[in-house]
Amino acid sequence: MGLRIKAVNNMKGEKTILALIPARGGSKGIPQKNIQPLNDKPLIAWTIEQAKRSRYIDRLIVSTDDMEIAEIARQYNAEVPFLRPKTLAGDKTTTMSVILHLLDWLKKNKTPFDILVLLQPTSPFRLAEDIDKAIDVFFNKNAKSVVSVCETENIHAWSNILPENGCMKRFIRMVIGERNRQSLSRYYQLNGAIYVAYTKYLMKKKNFFGIATYAYVMPALRSVDIDEQIDLDWAEFLVAKHMLDRRHV
Questions:
Q1: Residue range 196-243, pLDDT digits in tens
Q2: Fewer CB within 10 A of the end CB, N or C, for the chain?
Q3: CATH number at residue 85
């Protein structure tokens, strides 16, 4: 562990790393979702606590339009240096527009950063070690960006179109039908937990994805994404059943 940290710190050199947690006040699926309690702790606090434990993050900022979220974030020792305008807090507001707003604010305040780590508060079970390992991948691969993923079901292997009469004669292709699940190729999906990129790359591309984007693979259990109430209920169940790493609770 010590050698790995030293190696990445050497690659990091003088590069500065900023973590951003975007947390708007409005939410249709779950009102005030970002501060809803999970195991008696505000949802956003789970992300703040792990970000603060990262070995590589130099500064942590929460971008919100909501005073209550800002106050709770500060209670957990996150920095909230401004309230973003309501025009950047609507249902159609993109995460990239929030990122660019922050980068512009940093530039105006003469505190630019080399690298940005985006940590969405709806991914409460990502650990500090996940954040640091994603940064490891970023430097080890000489990447422009890194995005977290988790393994998912190979839905293409078990799905097909249906004719009008519902006959499944050719539903499962023979080459797949003769193989067991374990022998099929592994598929991965974005889990929304961690995004890492050079800030100059983001300002130019306005996107995390490109030919120099690499994946950081996370366990599915730590990839829970809170969108609807059923997701929050599932997260509560996982905590109650102690199915998660004890560093979370």
A1: 999 999 999 999 999 999 999 999 999 999 999 999 999 999 998 876
A2: N
A3: 3.90.550.10
Tokens standing for residue 219: 């366990």
Which tokens is 81 given?
């240096």
Q: Does a structural domain hold residue 210?
A: yes
The strand pair at 187-198 and 213-218 is best described as: unpaired
Lowest mean pLDDT among 37-51, 58-72, 75-89, 155-169: 155-169
Q: Closest Cα partner for 9 from 58, 49, 51?
A: 58
- In single-letter form, the type of residue at position 138 comes to F
Q: Is residue 122 part of a domain?
A: yes
53 assigned to some structural domain = yes
User: Residue 106 is part of which domain span?
Assistant: 2-151+187-233
Q: Which of 216, 212, 210 is nearest to 194 (CA)?
A: 216
Look at residue 166 and tell me if it is in a domain.
Answer: no
Within 8 A by CB and 6+ apart from 28, the residues are 91
